[in-house]
Amino acid sequence: MAKDLRTYLGQLNQFDSNSIKLVDTEVDPRFGITAYAAALAEKGDYPALLFNKVKGAQMACVSNLLTSYERIALYLGCEVQDIPRVYGEKLQQPIEPVVVDRAAARVKENVIEEADVDLAKLPIPVHNEMDGGPYLSAGVMIIRDPESGLINAGIYRHQIFNERDMGVWFLGAHHGGLIYKKYKKQGKPAPIAIALGHHPGFIMGAVSRVQGIGGEYEAAGALMGEPLELVQADTSDLLVPAHAEIILEGEILPDNDHSEGPFGEWPGHYLGGGSVPTIRIKRITYRNHAIFQDIVASGREHLVVGGVPRSGSIYQTVKKIVPGLKTVNVPFYSRMNCYLSIQKEKDADVKKAAFAALNTEPENLRHIVVVDEDIDVFNGEEVAWAIGTRFDAERDLLVIPRWNGPGGLLPTNWEYNAEGKNTPRMSSAVIVDATKPAPPVVFPKRAVVPKDKVELADLASLRELNSDEKNNWQI
Hints:
alpha+beta, 13 helices, globular
């Protein structure tokens, strides 16, 4: 059986039976879906949520699915600390997709013709308080470059305008936006498809930093560990995932822009928006008992889904420059930061590694912290300890002026005034060298219990105090 959203849900349930919660109560798509995720997050709980009854919709909705590194490690088949290395190594071994007949494509089991398209019948959430309307947050938009013929896939934000129209917001040099401009220059609509609901490997393949236009299908295959199965779209020459839950087919209109936003983005603020191109949906195909997939915008899932692929891409790049790289963490709680652990051979390795990371993710990274190989970069306490004990601001801090921007999603890339008219600006980046001096310099050793003695500790023998013992010690 080909891997898809449902095979992953089965794998996750087998791994941890408490990881998926079913919501049988009817919820309003306006804040009702995200309210459950927000309420659980306040308690430090992040289960996947499967909503069985969404008001006005004819499908179930899954949200909050990829909220932890453990769930990423599960499908990659590795430990959490190995995610960047395994992710990066898989991307270096792309797997070509295969095309299957329509009869074998589960996403073709049901068809909604153009005259019957009504996006309101999909369980599309309004995520946050000031959002301008419902948004697709997990839709992978597929578009073919008219010059090279290559197919590009990526996740963009799509505000729903009416029963057939939605927007698409392109940021900076996103490949989808560059391709759309080629069609617009010719005065032609750009055929697109949007895939909703699939295996995490497909989702993350679509947001991986693949060089040049195209390559996301091959990256998805590498991350899934098998070829991604594709099928011919009904209304264009696009090839779309055969086992997605839902496929929206349509086109970006060349001269029909629409006001969009606001939308709560991953940095936790309402940014971006303005006038965006309009997509008109012409056909919908979907599986039996389809499950609409949502990513909780501006929540933990949004950060994990965006951060992990960037860690993998950064690992690939930095490893080539500094072979002593151990691992990378772009923490989900702050995707503007990047922690690199290295086995330092020369003091210059720190700057080489940091600049390689910054150039891999120039739009979003603001702070690069480089630590030694004995520091667990997935443990914020250890990183903070390294900064406190191995970093001297006068000597080890490098500020790079005017690195990010102008504009974009980071709030500091804008000037603000009382009238509410924001002006884009450039902002700086920082490199923090929290490493010990390179050999042969002798630096004070870290105080630790010998590892062989730690392994001898009989944790199974631990028990709680009984009542007599509590009384003896007046506990």
